Amino acid sequence: MTIEQTYFRRGFGLKEQVRPVIEAEYHSALVEQIRSRGYQQTFGDVDVRLAEEFGFCYGVDRAVDYAYETRRKFPEKKVYLVGEIIHNPHVNQRMREMDIEFIYPDADGEFDYSHLTPEDAVLLPAFGVTIEDFGRLRDVGCVLVDTTCGSVLLVWKRVESYARDGFTAVIHGKYTHEESRATASQVRRHPAGKYLIVRDMEEAQVVCDYMMGAEGRITRDTFLARFGHKASEGFDPDLHLQKIGVANQTTMLANESMAIGARLRKAMVEAHGEDYAAENFRSFGTICSATQERQDAVRKMMDTPPDIMVVIGGYNSSNTNHLAHMCREYTRTFHVEDSSCIDVESGEIRHKPELAADAPEVIDRDWLPSGPFSLGITAGASTPNNKIGDAVFRVLKLRGIHPEDVIAGGSVQAPTPSTR
């Protein structure tokens, strides 16, 4: 096959065939019922409120569709996936059950493709892959099915344009995240391209201090020790912070990304003046619309915070972690990786109480109020509706409300004593 015959970015025209299977596996009648009633419904003494935007976004929906299409299109091929299709344990487990083999990176983020052959098919995840990984896979000659999200591609184009025009790309993101690694790699399309990844405002302020030449705050050696592993090879802060363009991992907190961009521009103005900054600073909003919409929906919900907030999504899902962080500022919040973290037998909940993706999971008992309460629900862009609905079911079961009482199209029976 030619290169054109082995690279697919628009699926295989099998959406109608796989859609019934996907809907059967990921649909939730309960979620649709609550959504149809204005995103709020009372069951016994529990007032359930859904955020108005949650769960699968277009990019995730597309990635999952293409994975199912690929398995159907090539039933005899070995199908591999670079990393994880999305950051959701349930969806990734379904990929394994479909006989899709995962290729995970080593401790340095490098992938081993030595076992691949031209007879194989390889899925590229929604986060994308680095330009080097893409090239290596093309050299293998295997079928490539590219599910990279369109919002990510837009950021790549922006970062590539920075490098083309001699600007260093300062990327707000997590330097270990697949998307940030793939985004940063775009500068290498140009020989002199450079990047620097900053995790948060604290790190951005260190960059600002160096740009402004703040006496005694940070030396060149200290700067390189802190950021050397988060910057392109040969990065020279004295040279490569003279012209910068700001971008971000698409799933970061929108307000923080904008604040970081504004702070970096202010530092350049203070160091060199407004006219210089007008010529040597660029910034464009690159938070994806789905991430923004889910964050906006949480802010709207927090105008009247629920008593308890449950946020559902993978612990390594950046957008889910940020939703949980936002909710914690307003109400008692539990970030669960999966609905099964709510144990209807013991009444316990396993959850991650901190923003950091590697924060340890903890167990809480007696986490629900004893009297009537409001329950808020949202989920990251990689969480299917069936897991959202199951989380609601499990909370209701703890209040003695059973599934057969919930989706009745009519009244819900009064709750029986709690099973806890």
Structure explained in plain terms:
With 420 residues, the chain is α/β, with parallel strands linked by helices. It folds into 3 domains: 27-57 and 290-406, 3-Layer(aba) Sandwich (Cobalt-precorrin-4 Transmethylase, domain 1), CATH 3.40.1010.20; 58-149, Rossmann fold, CATH 3.40.50; 151-287, 3-Layer(aba) Sandwich (Cobalt-precorrin-4 Transmethylase, domain 1). The protein contains 17 helices and 16 strands. The strands form 4 sheets. The chain has a 5-stranded parallel beta sheet with strand order 1-7-6-4-5. A 5-stranded mixed beta sheet has the order 2-3-16-12-13, sandwiched between helices. A 4-stranded parallel beta sheet has the order 9-8-10-11, sandwiched between helices. A hairpin with a 2-residue loop joins strand 2 (40-43) and strand 3 (46-50).
